Every structure is written in C-alpha cells, then in structure tokens.
Task: structure prediction
Amino acid sequence: MKYHNPVIKGFHPDPSICRVGEDYYLVTSSFEYFPGIPIFHSRDLVNWTQIGSCVKQSDQFPLEKVQDSGGIWAPAIRYEKGRFYVTATLEYYGNFIISAEHPAGEWSPPVKVPMGGIDPSILFDGGKAYYCTNETLHPGVEEITAAEIDVNTGVLIGEKRSLWRGIGGGFLEAPHLYHIGDWYYLMTAEGGTNFNHMVTIGRSRSVWGPYEGCPFNPILTNVHDTGKEVQCSGHGDLLQDHRGNWWMIHLAIRLARRTMSHLGRETFLTPVTWQDGWPMVAGNHKAVLNGEGPLWEEPKEPKEWKADFTGTDWEPEWIFLRNPLKDSYRRGQGKLRLYPSAVTLRDAGTPTFAAIRQRDFDCELFVEYIFAPVRDGDEAGIAIVLSSEFHYFIGKKRNLGQNTLVIEKRAEDFYQTPYQEPIPDGKLRIKVKADKEYYTFYFAAGEEPLREICRASTRFLACEMAGKCFTGTVMGVYTASLGETEAVMEVTRFEML
Result:
C-alpha cells in the first residue's frame, strides 16, 4: 500500500515508538517548549493523533533558563508489564525516567539516572532493564555505554560498560538496544543531525558485546540522495507491527528553498526487511516521500484544526515557550484572553505566546481577535517563531500614541518593518498563508474583506539560516508590553487549515 511521508508533519524530531497489542505509541522531542514530549497514538502507523504530553508539571521540569534548542530532547518510549516508560535528557539536569499506566494520563515525577551522555534508551529483557546512552568511558573516544538499571529508582546495578564505537561517522548518539531472535542489536545515529545524518547498527550474541558492525552500514541515510526531496534522515527506532512486518520510525527533513527547511525535522516511516540477519531499509537505504509498504489502512488527509475556547482545557497541540505563567492566559466562554508581558520573544524567558507547530509547508492560519492598546509598546497579534532571534510578527501595536498594523521581521541582527498602517479600534482578522517559499499576510478590520498586504520569505526562518537549530517553526498568538498595562488580547477564532 502507498503512503506519504512524513507521517507526522512539522517540528517532531527524534521519534521513538512502542507497540502494545494493535496500538502504537510514539514520542518526539520538544526542546524549549512546554508541555514536553508530545505523545501520539495510532492503530495503523500512518494516521497519528496526539493524545497528550508526557511532561506536564512545570515545577518538576525547570525550563525557565534553557536556551534555544535546549530543554528536553531525544525521548525513548518502551512498554513493560502494564506500564509505559519514557526516558530523555533535560538540559542542566541530566537523564531521567518517567512512567505511566495510561499514556494519555498522568506521568510520574522524574527519576534521575546517574549516567552521563545524551539520547538515553531502555531495553527490557529477561526480567532485567538495561540503560544506554552515548556516555564515553574513555576520554576522547565516542562510544555507546550501558548499565543494568532499576527503572523505578534510577539506581544502576553493576558497572557501566562500553558496548560499541560505531563506524566512525562522528557524533555517535541515539542508541537503541533490541533483543531479536538470538541476537542483540544496537542501532545508533552518526554523522550529526544534519546533511550527513545516518543510522548504523551492530549486533552481538550478548547484550554486553562485543558488537560487530553491519556490512551494509549505514542502513539508512540520504547523504547521497541527489533527488534532494528528503535529507538528514537518521535517529531511528525499529518496530515489528502486529502483523509481523518490520519498520523504522526516524527523523528527516523536507527541503523548501534549495537546501533549507523551516519546518525542521519531521517523523518518517520506512519499511524494513531482513538480509543475512541484518535489518535493511528498502529503496537503496534511503527515506522517501512517497513510500510503499505492507500497511492495512489508507492514510487520511489531515483535517483543519480549530481551537475550542468554550472550555478551560488546552488542546494537546498547544505549546508555550519554557514554563508558561498560568496568570497570562484565561480560557472560556468562547474566548482566549492573553495578558501582555514585558518578556518578549527575544528574551530567554517566558513570553505570553500560545502556539501550535506549523503543520505543513502549505497551510493557512486564521486568527480573529480584539486588542485595545493602552500604552506605547503594547502589541498583540500572530508570531511565527523559529527561535528567539528568528521570527516574524503581524499585529496591532501602539507607537507615539497611534495604533498601527505592523509586520516585523527579525533574523538575528537584521530587523525590518516592511509594512505598517494606522488601523481603527475593534475586531481584527489576520490570515497567514504559507507555502514553501513565502508567508503571505492578509488583514481586515471589522467585517471588511481580507486583503493581501505583504509577504515574507521563509528563508529567514530556515533552520539552516539560524545555525544550530533543532526545532522548527511554530505559529501562535502573542502579546507584549514595555511594562505594566491594562490592555488584554481577546482571541475568538484560531484555526489552521
């Protein structure tokens, strides 16, 4: 059956997956955004629904001071004896384990693991649990290290042992251990999470090694893919479905402009076969956009996404920068009220900014709101954010006693206001139409028809432009002030098509 990649679009990197019967659960990195570690459910591997997040208690996961692309990353999810376990790395804290009986419910407080390195993973095997990271026991040498662990306390049982040093591709990370048949397999990522990214694998008769490398390594990479539709494939997790077929879930990017992508790393699905006891990726070891594999359900086109402000609960897709301040938001009775903060998108803090991940290159965001500025510097509107130094804004702003519609573009030390005009009080309607190359901005006051006013290149929100950027563009409502103000942003419609 044919299907399309990515199976989860937008900023969803470092995927990990587990199966319980005929149900599949998947987690991805969240970095500086909160709630952390989104979790998805599927019955068919191609149609995924976010059912919540694993990290929802801000006091247990301090993100206040994390930098761009910091925070929480590279989770791994596993299921053992009626309980789900997720392990990941938290900046400034280290590696941790959380668990839950129901993945959409409450997760336990974090258990700290006294093991260095990043990208942790757990193997449950024979009544024991093994914990592995890319910690090095030999200075100057890249390697994967493991130890037996008590997953409930985080206490290591016995000594840490070096397992494998990869194939020499550099940036050895993302280890996952599997016990399949008579072999233990250790799958890793190498090459750095950019255009040289790859998946490599080794195997051993013992969990402790020695591991021999696959003669076909790397088993997944798009480094030599001249088609340039998919790049940076790597950081994978193996899975056998309930029908006996094998798959790899992994990250990759789709290119927008030349070698640039503003959506960031997305979640791909690739079929796997076995040759001489080694997992092999079909299609010359490459990830593709148009896949074909032994699926049992047709992929469904995603529906439009609309926020429902009649209740007080946030839909699981909403995210906030770092640990959000609850007093900055009020939901209910058909409105979302946002209270301006002196913390801006450029600050390493918590601005008043409620967003969702950009769902695809081609999409439309529509927002309807009311905002009556009180003091100079009061502003409210839509922000498209890649990082603190790379973002666009369209909205209402008060300057020198006059209310204006402004579009602002920031790319590091480059700042531009390509459009501004005086606007009246009352309701505002703003639409952002996105494609691979541009964001096109539309505006209307009151019930006037929407009119196109400006467009901006996606180039300056590309991860490659920002440099070391592990996230992707998010789009949301934002309000700020220079100090205390009585102004309030009231949003009545927020929808992405």
